[in-house]
Amino acid sequence: MVRVKFRYLVVNFLYPSPAPKSRTALPDLIQIHSPTPDAFNAGALVRLLRDAIEDLYGDYGSGMVSSSLKVNYFSPATSTAIIRCPRDHYELVWAALTFVTKLPRVDIPVVCRVVRVSATIKKAEEEVIRRSRTIVKRARAGEGKADPMLASVEKSVEKERREALVVVDEGHESEEMSE
Fold it and tell me: What is the reported pTM?
């Protein structure tokens, strides 16, 4: 009897443009790694993958991949997923993920980045845990002290705001003087 062999893709979802409901300007690093919207779940990801594979490879691609395509893990908080696909055709899934530009239903631009291809689910899970720990360490290291680059950006933005207010105030005063 022949055993069906799989590959596991660890995928990160990145959001290059600001969220439409965002009121505050977030740093680019935080904005790109923002959480996935609640309307997008594991079932929507499978449908998205099947549609993308069919668009890219037609019936052949759908037939080769759809029977064993499964999302083993999906975390909207970290925008990470582990996708199981057939070993012989994992490149089809990877290529389809590369061509995805928007999330369905929520219509938000997205970049799907495959960060690891693994032969076992255990190694894929270890990679997700390792990446999560790294993110937590960076966040804790940044709590106590301000990031120098972020601080300089905040200073320059504040300076530009002050200059804009001064220009507006001067323009308002010159209008009152001319009347």
Answer: 0.71
pLDDT, tens only, 100-121: 999 988 888 999 999 999 999 9
Q: 106 to each of 19, 68, 92, 141, how far by Cα in Å?
A: 11, 26, 25, 33
Q: Treating both helix axes as pointing N-terminal to C-terminal, what angle do 90-98 and 42-65 enclose, rounded to 10 degrees?
A: 130
- Opening angle at CA 102, ends 123 and 73, nearest 5: 25
Distance CA 156, CA 95 (A): 41
Say yes or no: 167 and 130 in one domain.
no
- Domain annotation covers residue 179: no
**Whether the Cβ atoms of residue 74 and residue 41 lie closer than 8 Å to each other:** yes
Instruction: Identify whether residues 21 and 85 lie together within a single domain.
Output: yes
pLDDT digits (tens, 9 = 90+) for 63-107: 999 889 999 999 888 889 999 999 999 999 999 999 999 998 888
Categorise residue 83: left if φ over 0, alpha if ψ from -120 to 50, beta otherwise: beta
Please check whether residue 49 is in contact with residue 86, taking contact to mean a CB–CB distance below 8 angstroms. no
